[in-house]
TrEMBL record:
Residues 285-303 have a biased composition (Basic and acidic residues). This is ABC transporter ATP-binding protein. Pfam families: ABC_tran (PF00005), BCA_ABC_TP_C (PF12399). Residues 22-268 form the ABC transporter domain. It comes from Streptomyces camelliae. The keyword Membrane does not apply. Keywords: ATP-binding, Nucleotide-binding, Transport. Residues 275-284 have a biased composition (Acidic residues).
Length: 303
């Protein structure tokens, strides 16, 4: 993987420094009687890595789906570089927002290179006739696409696996491939949904470096993650969603130190919660029950 963050070219979709890339205002998403996201405002500026955290079921993925045209928000508006986004995911991708998914969505029986080439379809201009006739224009465009796809594979450190089937890659590399495929649409904003889920600490560290390198290419990043160390190392700003609402937004130190965030994750102690004595009593009873069961099964085995 390339981690030299000073020499890389800027991606075509990259935004001018400091420009507001994403501007989500009052986003609400209801499913029948359930309000999964309620009046959430969030901006992401160029050059930023912003984190979105919150307990399970807080509405993070639903919010991502509202940003990427998978869901049309019940209320609110999402703008990308000042333009209201169209309510279709392929149009959102064409506009400049790419994403990865919590559950990896690769074409398992296609090669690594082919997966990245699929990601380029919003950026290739060759039409149906050109493809069918396979004229010089088509061949030129195809060669350029392959060259760009190989560049992206090199960027994520998978160029040596270009001809492997996606399904044969280890899990961590599948996640990298998803990122390369998302980058193939030349986005100005990349949304990552739990990019380190299922990774070991080394893979997580490598993903952190990869996200920094993506940011240094001029692509803003919004990332959902449960790994707090990853989020607080990585992000310039972190927003916390709890039960669909934004609880707080700020830099890592502010969010980490906020008691409401700690309470939201750990659960506040409730009235009449058992004290130490009751807990000790229950544990002793459980230990006794376990010992009795073990002894009984030992007798069974002796027979
Ligand atoms: N398509 C849907 N239809 C109905 N309810 C949904 C739908 N999608 C999500 N929900 C509900 O909306 C709430 C928020 O879910 P969401 O997946 O956005 O949370 P999350 O913060 O991403 O959780 P996790 O961290 O576990 O991925 C949950 O109560 C979920 O059950």
């Amino acid at each position: 993987m390339t981690t030299d963050t000073t020499t890389q070219d800027t991606a075509p979709g990259a935004a001018a420094s400091g420009e507001t890339v994403l501007d989500a205002r009052g986003v609400t998403m209801r499913f029948g009687g359930l309000t999964a996201v309620r009046g959430v405002d969030l901006t992401v500026n160029s050059g930023e890595i912003v984190g979105l955290i919150g307990p399970n079921g807080a509405g993070k993925t639903t919010f991502f789906n509202c940003l990427t045209g998978l869901y049309v928000p019940t209320e609110g508006e999402v703008r990308y570089k000042g333009q209201v986004l169209p309510p279709k995911s392929f149009k959102v991708t064409a506009a400049g927002i790419a994403r990865t998914f919590q559950n990896i969505r690769l074409f398992a029986n296609m090669t690594v290179l082919e997966n990245v080439l699929v990601g380029r379809h919003t950026r290739t201009k060759e039409g149906l006739w050109s493809a069918l006739l396979r004229g010089p224009g088509f061949h030129r465009a195809e060669a350029a696409s392959r060259a760009r796809a190989m560049e992206l594979l090199q960027f994520v450190g998978l160029e040596h696996k270009a001809e492997h089937l996606a399904r044969n890659l280890p899990y961590g590399e599948q996640r990298k491939l998803e990122i390369a495929r998302a980058l193939a649409s030349e986005p100005g904003l990349l949304l990552l949904d739990e990019p380190t889920a299922g990774m070991n600490p080394q893979e997580t560290r490598a993903t952190e470096e990869l996200v920094f390198a993506i940011r240094d290419k001029g692509i803003a990043v919004l990332v959902i993650e449960h790994d707090m160390r990853f989020i607080f190392n990585l992000c310039d700003r972190v927003a916390v969603l709890v039960q669909g609402e934004k609880l707080i937004e700020g830099d890592s130190a502010t969010v980490q130190g906020d008691e409401r965030v700690i309470a939201a994750y750990l659960g506040e102690p409730f009235e009449n919660a058992p004290g130490d004595e009751e807990v000790a009593e229950v544990e002793a009873a459980e230990a006794h029950a376990e010992a009795t069961t073990d002894a009984a099964s030992g007798k069974e085995n002796d027979r």
